[in-house]
């Protein structure tokens, strides 16, 4: 699924990486524990989280994750946008809960990592 479609499906706002929204995502992983994210070995992955801080963007960078959806109406900071821009990472703000977001993406065909 294209990142553009994910943003549309979730009625979400792409706040960084608009030029990358035609990239494909096949898998999703949801966590607020960045140590769990570092254990992943999957390409074309979207990270779904409510943790809005620099650690999230840096963890995604280390794990080669190029798309992060922030749930529960959380807002990213300008510093997060700067780092994400440098690393070609798409940042999306979503108003839905993590549970609802995961369900919507699963119903639309995005696969879980496990």
From TrEMBL:
DRTGG domain residues: 6-107
A Pfam family recorded for this sequence: DRTGG
Domain of life, source organism: Bacteria
Subunit-level organization: Homohexamer.
Protein name as annotated: DRTGG domain-containing protein
Species, as recorded: Carboxylicivirga mesophila
Taxonomic path: Bacteria, Pseudomonadati, Bacteroidota, Bacteroidia, Marinilabiliales
């Amino acid at each position: 699924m294209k990142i553009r479609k994910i943003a549309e499906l979730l009625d979400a706002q792409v706040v960084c990486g608009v030029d990358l929204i035609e990239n494909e995502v096949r898998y999703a992983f949801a966590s607020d524990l960045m140590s769990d994210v570092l254990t992943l070995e999957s390409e074309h992955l979207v990270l779904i989280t409510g943790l809005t801080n620099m650690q999230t963007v840096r963890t995604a960078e280390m794990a080669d994750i190029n798309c992060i959806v922030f749930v529960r109406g959380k807002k990213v900071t300008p510093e997060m946008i700067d780092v994400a821009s440098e690393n070609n990472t798409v940042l999306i703000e979503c108003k839905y809960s993590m549970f609802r977001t995961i369900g919507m993406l699963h119903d639309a065909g995005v696969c879980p990592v496990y």
